[in-house]
């Protein structure tokens, strides 16, 4: 019944290619999260304002990013913008689309975090003579940070896994590189077992690192 | 001195304060009593500029609170305020709660701020709780922490906004004791309270609020024992019954 013979040496021969793919995956993950974190803050604040043009624009962004498939978003950036005459390479198309996607999720995460801090905390800070900025810096944001920390780590994992969609538009991230490498021998099973192991290893490393950081940063509270 | 002249305050169409005049002299303890929603707490929030007013003026040591060119952050250092909800900063230890504002606002060194905070924690009886987080403190302890936090800015006035209303009955005493201690040290205080007995015993004067106005103001014992206004009499009868 099971007469499949695993041929692992074929995979190890392509190991450097897989590692190169993993490197692209990591790059996309880190860059997209970094840009999205910066972009999500003004979006969250605009949505909190509850009215005005910037709030509407932020709402459209959040709705589009969270309620359409990431693959469709990648197509929109790669083929959609391409049709409009704006040609972007597959690397930056994937980076742009995943950043767009992350920003939508992070904006809502930050908004929820800000809402979760008791509003009286702001007055408590201001009444001690702190400026609005000092109150946010010393009292509000440290609390928001704790609230959004683990959802944020989830989003890192999610961004990394989503980047595998880059294969569809020819990006050689980990999945794309694996797809390329197996096309010579068609040992699809072996190659993707190894790719899955690499994804798992990266995701687990991120999560373990996050736990260590959290333990050091939050163990006091 | 805190001078309140003809202050009007509305939240949208809801008029909460409708023309209040009041003076609080240095060293005095003034208690504000009255039914919920009569405007007492809102007045306190106006005094330290947390709430804008629509008409009138509030002056603290001659500085107009709501004037455009007033530096509220500087003015608030004179005005400690403690709220009904203790509003401890949950991510900081008791010591850090108290040390934060002196360090950030007055820019004193970390070591000085910690020494100052330690002194004020001891003062309110929390000397053994320096490294404890607010979640591990009782309501009464959190409220005393809030008092220490306000005192650490060395204010000229302390405003208390129903500081015992959220506490379990058995914890009220320790907070009121702290207020009595402050009075004995000569602190100028404005105390919004539902505790008439406390107001009579600790207050120098009492102002009775009704529907956004001051219905009666006078010596504490007089307002409680021999009210001049019928409304005051009815209110006292209800709450003391």
UniProtKB/TrEMBL annotation, chain A:
**Localisation per UniProt entry:** Cell inner membrane; Cell membrane
Q: What is this protein called?
A: Amino acid ABC transporter membrane protein 1 (PAAT family)
Sorted keywords for this record are: Amino-acid transport, Cell membrane, Membrane, Transmembrane, Transmembrane helix, Transport
Any Gene Ontology CC annotation: ATP-binding cassette (ABC) transporter complex
Picking any one GO molecular function of the record gives: L-cystine transmembrane transporter activity
Q: Where is the ABC transmembrane type-1 domain?
A: 22-210
UniProt membrane topology term = Multi-pass membrane protein
Q: Which family does it belong to?
A: Belongs to the binding-protein-dependent transport system permease family. HisMQ subfamily.
The residues that cross the membrane are 20-45, 191-214
Q: Does the keyword Transport apply?
A: yes
Q: Which organism is it from?
A: Chelatococcus asaccharovorans
> Which PROSITE patterns did the record assign?
ABC_TM1
Automatic annotation (TrEMBL), chain B:
Task: Spell out the InterPro entries in the cross-references.
Answer: AAA+_ATPase (IPR003593), ABC_ATPase_HisP-typ (IPR030679), ABC_transporter-like_ATP-bd (IPR003439), ABC_transporter-like_CS (IPR017871), MetN_ABC_transporter-like (IPR050086), P-loop_NTPase (IPR027417)
Q: How does it sit in the membrane?
A: Peripheral membrane protein
Where it sits in the cell: the answer is: Cell membrane
Q: Which domain of life is it from?
A: Bacteria
GO molecular function terms listed in the Swiss-Prot or TrEMBL record? ABC-type amino acid transporter activity; ATP binding; ATP hydrolysis activity
Enumerate the UniProt keywords alphabetically.
Amino-acid transport, ATP-binding, Cell membrane, Membrane, Nucleotide-binding, Transport
Q: Which GO terms describe its cellular component?
A: plasma membrane
Residue ranges of domain ABC transporter in the record? 2-236
Write out the similarity annotation. Answer: Belongs to the ABC transporter superfamily.
Name of the protein in question: Amino acid ABC transporter ATP-binding protein (PAAT family)
């Amino acid at each position: 019944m099971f007469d499949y013979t695993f041929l692992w040496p074929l995979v190890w021969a392509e190991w450097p290619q897989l590692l190169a793919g993993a490197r692209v995956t990591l790059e996309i993950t880190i860059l997209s999260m970094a840009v999205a974190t910066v972009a999500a803050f003004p979006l969250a604040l605009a949505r909190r304002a509850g009215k005005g043009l910037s709030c509407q624009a932020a709402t459209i962004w959040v709705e589009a990013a969270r309620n359409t498939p990431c693959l469709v978003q990648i197509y929109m950036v790669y083929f959609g913008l391409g049709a409009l005459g704006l040609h972007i390479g597959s690397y930056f198309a994937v980076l742009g689309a995943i950043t767009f996607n992350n920003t939508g999720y992070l904006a809502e995460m930050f908004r929820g975090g800000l809402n979760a801090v008791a509003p009286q905390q702001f007055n408590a800070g201001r009444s001690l003579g702190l400026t609005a900025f000092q109150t946010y810096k010393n009292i509000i944001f440290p609390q928001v940070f704790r609230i959004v920390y683990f959802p944020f780590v989830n989003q890192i994992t999610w961004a990394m896994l989503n980047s595998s969609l880059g294969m569809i538009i020819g990006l050689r991230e980990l999945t794309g590189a694996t797809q390329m490498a197996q096309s010579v021998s068609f040992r699809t099973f072996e190659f993707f077992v190894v790719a899955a192991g690499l994804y798992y290893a990266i995701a687990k490393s991120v999560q373990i690192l996050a736990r260590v950081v959290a333990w050091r940063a939050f163990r006091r509270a | 001195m805190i001078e309140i002249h003809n202050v009007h305050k509305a939240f949208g169409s809801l008029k909460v304060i409708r023309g209040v005049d009041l003076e609080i002299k240095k060293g005095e303890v003034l208690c504000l009593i009255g039914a919920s929603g009569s405007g007492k707490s809102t007045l306190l929030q106006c005094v330290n500029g947390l709430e804008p007013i629509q008409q009138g003026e509030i002056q603290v040591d001659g500085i107009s609170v709501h004037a455009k060119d007033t530096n509220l952050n500087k003015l608030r250092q004179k005005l400690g305020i403690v709220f009904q909800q203790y509003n401890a900063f949950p991510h900081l230890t008791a010591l850090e709660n108290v040390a934060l504002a002196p360090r950030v606002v007055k820019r004193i060194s970390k070591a000085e701020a910690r020494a100052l905070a330690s002194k004020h924690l001891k003062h309110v009886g929390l000397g053994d709780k320096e490294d404890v987080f607010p979640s591990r403190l009782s309501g009464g302890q959190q409220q005393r922490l809030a008092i220490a936090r306000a005192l650490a800015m060395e204010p000229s006035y302390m405003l208390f906004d129903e500081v015992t209303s959220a506490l379990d009955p058995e914890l009220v005493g320790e907070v009121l004791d702290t207020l009595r201690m402050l009075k004995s040290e000569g602190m100028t205080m404005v105390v919004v309270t539902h505790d008439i007995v406390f107001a009579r015993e600790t207050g120098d004067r009492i102002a009775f609020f009704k529907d956004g106005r001051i219905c009666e103001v006078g010596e504490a014992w007089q307002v409680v024992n021999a009210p001049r206004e019928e409304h005051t009499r009815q209110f006292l009868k209800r709450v003391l019954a």
